[in-house]
Amino acid sequence: MQVLQVQLEIRPDPAEVGRARRWARSRLAGSGIEADEPLAETLILLVSELVTNAVVHTGRPAVLRLLLPSSVTGPTVGERAVAEAVATVRLEVLDASARPPRPRCADGDETNGRGLALVDGLADRWGWSSEGAGKRIWCEVDRCSATAAIAVTCDSAPAVYGDLAFEVV
């Protein structure tokens, strides 16, 4: 599967968070991920959290990068292995601060301090690495085709007849 990589330079200004969300939403739509899909909303929230962290905590320019599968409509279970029907969307934010991300524990009414906890809860995987004089924070969200999602969540593989999947219970 081929991957399309797009990126946006972010200025150290809180207004850039909204611009990053709008940019990411348009790139997702261009890759076939519809705006009303739960995946799109999850990815936009992840963009918001990671870009906010970069802008607020570093005060330096950053780069937002999306790596999108070129074909988000994977094969059906009957055509290929279920694992091949899973497409991963990767989001990266590169900034010029070598300071590692530090998850915080926000108390009750605090309005800050939950960003990395949200990333941890929403992404299938996330992490960070040193990158030159700065760092790269990344997260990945898997997108399964509808039939692959059925097959992956069931204890036994469902029988497939045409476009329909059945499971004996």
UniProtKB/TrEMBL annotation:
Q: Give the Pfam families listed for this entry.
A: HATPase_c_2
Stored Gene3D superfamilies: Histidine kinase-like ATPase, C-terminal domain
| InterPro entries per record | Anti-sigma-factor_SerPK, HATPase_C_sf, HATPase_dom
Q: Please indicate which superkingdom the organism of origin belongs to.
A: Bacteria
**Keywords carried by this UniProt record:** Kinase, Serine/threonine-protein kinase, Transferase
Question: Domain named Histidine kinase/HSP90-like ATPase: which ranges?
Answer: 11-138
PANTHER family for this protein: ANTI-SIGMA-F FACTOR RSBW, ANTI-SIGMA-F FACTOR RSBW-RELATED
- Name of the featured protein: Anti-sigma regulatory factor (Ser/Thr protein kinase)
Native species: Streptomyces umbrinus
Q: What is the lineage of its organism?
A: Bacteria, Bacillati, Actinomycetota, Actinomycetes, Kitasatosporales
